[in-house]
Design a protein that fits this description.
362 residues; mainly beta; Porin; 12-stranded antiparallel β-barrel; 7% helix
Length: 362
């Protein structure tokens, strides 16, 4: 049951990736460890569920006022941003033992949005300045992700699943800046578009160790202000180790001791029917150490068919993390530092990413 908490954390964190071009995306088992952001191939058991609350903080840097003024002088539309903060509520449910549905509803805050401004004043004077446009905040787009596990080899610990889903245009698209002007689509909490998701996940267990990987393509549609924010390709890999609380699979079998399982059937004895109900294992502390690679490639943004050269790119984060759990409750955190930060044109680049949350299984 405690496994339920881990299973959907990555699935619901799927949009909490490096967030290229400033568009943000998304507990553990009694046996082995598992990832935080990477999507595991495991699924919730039928009829079981989990809820979680996440907070993501993305810090950006790289463009100062001088950069914005220089770009404005060349008639280039360039902006900078301070942070993206993303708070989300998530839930998941096991429809069958091999089919899980998860949902993520975010609240998005973008801060310190600035851009260069080019203007012509009376007398032929040319002015290049920096406009402070302020912050943009509101309810974002809801993502629904399905996960079907088509391979589950218990003997080898190998599992594989297909991922599929949709992002609905539920977010706000009418936010105004500090001057009362409508923010461009890229700064709105919602995209106004229907996006479709398809990918796969893989898990391999080795005792207290776990290796997990997933890929996920997001096909973006055209939304508010006739803008397509760009399709994305997410890829993640994680190695996890259970530091505290590891239990071998044989010790988790229906409350029976491992010695009984190792020596065949339990000898017959006269007993009351209630005596045959295995006692529930008492809650225990669990601590997982996790190291992940979280990557995202983002296509160019287009508005009315015109491509923005200062959008999209490729970011890869190295993200160590830690999970501490007790019973059906868990808290987790990961800190990502870019090892690849290849942006198109002039953009603020990711400085670091902090992602944390709590989860509960039922």
């Amino acid at each position: 049951m405690n496994r339920s908490i881990l299973l959907f954390v990555g699935a619901c964190a799927l949009t909490a990736s490096p967030a290229l071009a400033h568009h943000p995306g998304g507990a553990s088992n009694t046996g082995g460890a598992g990832p935080i952001t990477t999507i595991s191939a495991e699924t919730l058991e039928a009829g079981h569920g989990a809820v979680a609350f996440f907070y993501e903080y993305l810090k950006f840097g790289g463009l100062g006022d001088a950069d914005l003024i220089d770009a404005a002088s060349k008639h280039q539309h360039v902006h900078s941003i301070g942070t993206i903060q993303n708070a989300a509520a998530s839930g998941a449910y096991g429809v069958t033992d091999d089919l899980m549905i998860s949902l993520r509803a975010p609240y998005v805050l973008r801060t310190d949005i600035r851009e260069g401004h080019h203007s012509h004043l009376p007398g032929g004077v040319v002015s290049n300045t920096v406009d402070y446009r302020g912050d943009s905040a509101g309810f974002g787009d809801v993502t629904v992700l399905g996960q079907y596990r088509f391979l589950n080899n218990r003997a080898s610990g190998t599992q594989a699943a297909v991922l599929f889903g949709v992002k609905a245009p539920t977010g706000a698209t009418n936010r105004l800046d500090a001057q009362g002007e409508l923010f461009e689509a890229e700064f709105q909490p919602g995209s106004g578009s229907w996006d479709f998701l398809l990918g796969g996940a893989f898990t391999q267990r080795f005792g207290a160790w776990s290796f997990d990987a997933n890929v996920l393509g997001i096909l973006a549609g055209t939304g508010t202000q006739d803008t397509n924010l760009g399709s994305r390709f997410l890829y993640n890999a994680a190695v996890s180790y259970r530091l505290v609380g590891y239990r071998p699979p044989e010790e988790q079998h229906a409350g029976l001791p491992s010695s009984a399982l190792a020596h065949g059937p339990v000898p017959h004895r006269h007993e009351h029917p209630l005596d045959r109900i295995p006692a529930a294992a008492p809650p225990q502390w669990r601590v997982d150490a996790i190291l992940e690679l979280n990557g995202e490639w983002h296509d160019f943004e287009t508005t009315a068919g015109v491509r923005d050269p200062n959008s999209g790119g490729h970011v890869l984060l190295l993200s160590p993390g830690l999970r501490i759990g007790y019973g059906n409750v868990s808290g987790f955190a990961t800190f990502g530092i870019p090892i690849v930060n290849d942006m198109n044109g002039q953009q603020s680049k990711t400085s670091y990413r902090f992602f944390t949350g709590v989860a509960y299984a039922f």
